Amino acid sequence: MAKTLSEFSMLDPHVNSEPWDMYAEIHKECPVYQMPETGAFLVTKYDDLRQVLRDPETFSSDVRVASMGQFEELQRSILVEGGGWEHVQTLQRTDPPEHGRYRRLIDRVFTIKRVRELTPRIDQVVSELIDNFIEKGECDFNDEFAMRMPGIIIAEQLGLDHSQVSTFKKWADAMLGASRSAVAGEEEIRENAKIELEAQLFFAKIFEERRAVPQNDLMSAFVHSQTEDEDPLSMHELQNMMHQLITGGFETTQSAINHGMWALIRYPELVVKLKEDASLLKPFIEEVLRWEAPVQFLARRAAKDVELNGTLIPKDSMILVGYGPASRDESKFECPHQFDIERSNVGAHLAFGSGGHFCPGALLARQEMMSSFSGLIQRLDNIELARPLPAPVHNFSLFFLPMKEFHVKFTKA
Ligand code: HEM
User: Fold this and answer.
1) CATH number of the domain to which 255 belongs
2) What's the confidence (pLDDT) of residue 99?
3) How far, in Å, from the CA of 244 to the mean position of ligand 1?
4) Which atom of ligand 1 is nearest to the CA of 293?
5) Using alpha carbons only, how large is the chain's radius of gyration in Å?
6) Residue 268 phi, psi (nearest 5)
7) What's the rounded Cα separation, in Å, for the pair 213 and 193?
8) How many CA atoms lie within 13 A of 10 on its CB side?
9) In total, how many domains does the chain have?
10) Which whole number is the average pLDDT over 284-298?
11) How many other CB atoms are found less than 10 A from the CB of residue 15?
């Protein structure tokens, strides 16, 4: 018998890992749903999401008051006493007009031209990563491909050598760990803050070097892209922008690539179709993003009392905006729980958000997925799981969908 909503908990690691039945029940019973465990309001329907994301006066991205986190002072003191920079609010945590200042800068850096220039390097990284494992007939796909592919590209753009991708991964995990402070213990916060300090000191050095001698990378573009009538970004602001690029751009793309591969294993007939017709790669990628959106939720704060789809949300409540559930909304997508690259509105998902905070890295992420699946599909056949997936499949997170481990085997095409 189907479960009712009160029988599910988002904090149950199995529900959290595969929340689709719970989403369907939320859509049916109460589309703006207050989590009993945290008090946060989940917004889960497509139209509600667009309304929230396009009304920053009511639904603020400055979530400080509603923060569920603790140990913030501990984190701050470790950063500052070590010669680093305490967190300030920039970009994703700001509302207009302040948001515009950061957003203009990032839009000047993440251009179509830059993604086009980067594409040969992305193709080369894909090819080298496949070379590294193809003779073995199997690989730890999560570690040997899905993490490394976007990791190497961002690491190189931020001034690291590609061989330092593991260091970079450690920094990204520590920064994401800090954003999970609501559920983390004191020791974890302390460790993560120390690792983040190491990253901050590295970036400060690279900023100064690129300020003096620009190179063709993101860091140089950042420090040189301000116009004369704009106030220069402070080191606090620059550090926070780096933090957002790393936390926003790494695990998300890794997760999208993992889920694309998992879809190919679950639906092997797709591999045949994609091999025959490369023009299907684009809708395939969009359907991967819709089906298992890498960012399931992010936070907003109710700036005033507001009623949304029949639920009253009091001022200063934490709101979790559900890009994942909205992309499975049957009012928008026919048979939303079916993976279907031929659906008529295949790219209409909300995986990259909507409105003023729409993901500036979407072009880059889509190119990384295109290059990855184009290379993988050409070179691998008979792709299967090499080991059963762990249960639950994903590490616990209220925001993302990180696969724990993912070993695949294949033959050479
Ligand atoms: C498949 C991969 C990705 C997904 C699913 C994704 C998803 C998202 C979503 C849903 C938002 C909206 C946040 C909001 O509404 O507050 C966002 C914003 C953002 N993303 Fe991405 N992202 C991806 C890749 C990237 C990449 C590659 C980068 C950069 C290297 C990046 C950097 C950012 C930044 C900086 C923001 C904040 C923008 C703002 O607040 O104006 N993302 N992303």
Assistant:
1) 1.10.630.10
2) 97
3) 8
4) 5
5) 21
6) -60, -25
7) 30
8) 23
9) 1
10) 98
11) 17
Q: Which of 41, 257, 45 is nearest to 150 (CA)?
A: 257
Q: Kindly state the average pLDDT of the residues 20-37.
A: 96
Each residue's pLDDT tens digit, 364-392 = 999 999 999 999 999 999 999 999 999 99
Tokens of residue 201, six digits: 């000191």
Pocket of ligand 1 (CB under 6 A): 53, 61, 91-92, 103, 154, 244-245, 248-249, 252-253, 256, 294-295, 298, 323, 351-353, 357, 359-361, 364-365
Burial class (CB in 10 A: 0-12, 13-18, 19+), 272: exposed
Among 115, 28, 67, CA closest to 299:
67
In a domain, 170, yes or no: yes
pLDDT above 70: residue 50: yes
Ligand 1 test: best mutation among 319, 352, 367, 397, most atoms within 8 Å of CB?
Answer: 352
Percent of the chain with pLDDT over 90: 79
Distance between Cα 273 and ligand 1 center (Å): 30
Q: In whole angstroms, give the CA distance from residue 164 to residue 392.
A: 30
Q: Is 113 part of any domain?
A: yes
408 inside domain: no
pLDDT higher than threshold 70 for residue 266: yes
CA-nearest residue for atom 25, ligand 1, is: 249
Range of the domain at 202: 5-400
Examine residue 222 and state whether it is found in any structural domain, yes or no. yes
